[in-house]
TrEMBL record:
Residues 1-119, 120-204, 214-397 form the LRRK2 ARM repeat domain. This is Leucine rich repeat kinase 2. InterPro entries: ANK_LRRK2, ARM-like, ARM-type_fold, ARM_LRRK2. Residues 427-521 form the LRRK2 ANK repeat domain. Gene3D superfamilies: Leucine-rich Repeat Variant. The lineage of its organism: Eukaryota, Metazoa, Chordata, Craniata, Vertebrata.
Length: 521
């Protein structure tokens, strides 16, 4: 063990063997539960001892970390290493600290730490005290700015630390500056971009971090608008370069959300200069094709709910921009949103986002070009499925009212898909329970729009009678529905009497002009 040359040759040969024949790994673990008898150690114990004994040798540190990198591809060996009394984390930090100028040591050390952090629970300890692993990682990024592999692995490791909720420590130590530099230096590296954007998006939630990120991007800024103007175009560039990579698109959308979705500062709401600057930033986003890129991601990765939610949120945040509606329409935004709603009928968040967006995207043209039936079906289906979710009901009815104002004939499609049953339920329950007057007013407006058509009014009266819904029957009769209508030779009042279930309905129909002779039959 103490002869360096033997260790060098032995571990080098073992690395070659594992690379050529990965199946060898299983036989390297050695016997279990044998205590600390060094004569019968498994490979996981041997590597720890070698790194301990030869910690002053750069060559053995390199070959040791290379072997460790291979061993960590085995989940079982990784767990065995973590279970040992020897602290693998401290051994890696010791090697990285001892040989800061060796790119192999730094690269392999960062890579091993990333794997071990995924499985271990020592992150809290390593982020504090004398260790402070982020310092070692940042030093590696500083020392080897032109090593793409070191930058990539370091970003992955820092992303892991941000997931561990160590935002404050990382921000105070300006870790984000080095992440931003890596993003700029290696735009084609998908793995680096994913980790770096995720890291920046998470760090973004801390006060002051936006200014720091933008300063790192060499911009002079002190407002959220300057941050958005500087950062979002760079994220969009990443999306363009990696348009077929699902992870990159997802993390890019998440990062965009962190920059452009937070609300307007209170003190800026009455500031005309602020609004002027905001419009300039929005125009710049569209010049960078934000709408095209987000819609492309929605269409390409329709099977990923994360991308769908982020994408819909981004579109919702830009749909009010000047000329946005026209540009979104040209790119088929309505079809994309409808497709998403079709694919995720049970996802409450997606349904709420989608229903709200339709209200903004709808035009007379896209109601009449073949989407009308599908649109009505999706709206009614969502309202029926989430009949007790107030937000979806409000968004859905608001959207329906907006469409009815554009096209009165849309009411026929709604009733065809049983919208009247949805509206009966909501109006009846709100009238009885007096829950939400504002929502009830919204329902009444939609109901009045549909009831403007005499044929639909009579259809709804018949359905309300079928449901014994005296509240809606009374409403429809007051709006002029025909109490004497007949179906297959049988008058409406006769049908009600045959059921013998609601004297109230009979009374309402008679008071509204139903012929008494029909009752006597």
């Amino acid at each position: 063990m103490r002869v360096a040359s033997v260790q060098q040759v032995g571990w080098s040969l073992l690395c070659k063997l594992i690379e050529v024949c990965p199946g060898t790994m299983q036989s390297l673990m050695g016997p279990q539960d044998v205590g600390n008898d060094w004569e019968v150690l498994g490979v996981h114990q041997l590597i720890l001892k070698m790194l301990t004994v030869h910690n002053a040798s750069v060559n053995l540190s390199v070959i040791g970390l290379k072997t460790l990198d291979l061993l960590l591809t085995s989940g079982k060996i990784t767990l065995l290493i973590l279970d040992e009394e020897s602290d693998i984390f401290m051994l890696i930090f010791d090697a990285m600290h001892s040989f800061p100028a060796n790119d192999e040591v730094q690269k392999l050390g960062c890579k091993a730490l990333h794997v071990l952090f995924e499985r271990g629970n020592n992150v809290e300890v390593l982020m504090s005290g004398n260790v402070r692993c982020y310092n070692i990682v940042v030093e590696a990024m500083k020392a080897f700015p032109m090593s793409e592999r070191i930058q990539e692995v370091s970003c992955c490791l820092l992303h892991r630390l941000t997931l561990g909720n160590f935002f404050n420590i990382l921000v105070l130590n300006e870790v984000h500056e080095f992440v931003v530099k890596a993003v700029q230096q290696y735009p084609e590296n998908a793995a680096l971009q994913i980790s770096a954007l995720s890291c920046l998006a998470l760090l973004r939630s801390f006060p002051g971090i936006c200014e720091c990120i933008v300063n790192s991007l060499r911009t002079k800024c002190n407002t959220s608008l300057d941050i958005m103007a500087a950062v979002v175009p760079k994220i969009l560039t990443v999306m363009k370069r990696h348009e077929t990579s699902l992870p990159v698109q997802l993390e890019a959308l998440r990062a965009i959300l962190h920059f452009i979705v937070p609300g307007m500062p209170e003190e800026s709401r009455e500031d005309t200069e602020f609004h002027h600057k905001l419009n300039m930033v929005k125009k710049q986003c569209f010049k960078n094709d934000i709408h095209k890129l987000v819609l492309a991601a929605l269409n390409r990765f329709i099977g990923n709910p994360g991308i769908q939610k982020c994408g819909l949120k981004v579109i919702s945040s830009i749909v009010h921009f000047p000329d946005a509606l026209e540009m979104l329409s040209l790119e088929g935004a309505m079809d994309s949103v409808l497709h998403t709603l079709q694919m995720y009928p049970d996802d409450q968040e997606i349904q709420c986002l989608g229903l709200s967006l339709i209200g903004y995207l709808i035009t007379k043209k896209n109601v009449f070009i073949g989407t009308g039936h599908l649109l009505a079906k999706i709206l009614v289906s969502s309202l029926y499925r989430f009949k007790d979710v107030a937000e979806i009901q409000t968004k859905g009815f608001q959207t329906i009212l907006a469409i009815l104002k554009l096209s009165a004939s849309f009411s026929k499609l709604l009733v065809h898909h049983s919208f009247d049953l949805v509206i009966f339920h909501q109006m009846s329950s709100n009238i009885m329970e007096q829950k939400d007057q504002q929502f009830l007013n919204l329902c009444c407006k939609c109901f009045a729009k549909v009831a403007m058509d005499d044929y639909l009014k009579n259809v709804m009266l018949e359905r309300a009678c079928d449901q014994n819904n005296s509240i809606m029957v009374e409403c429809l009769l007051l709006l002029g529905a025909d109490a004497n209508q007949a179906k297959e030779g049988s008058s409406l009042i006769c049908q009600v009497c045959e059921k013998e279930s609601s004297p109230k309905l009979v009374e309402l129909l008679l008071n509204s002009g139903s012929r008494e002779q029909d009752v006597r039959k």
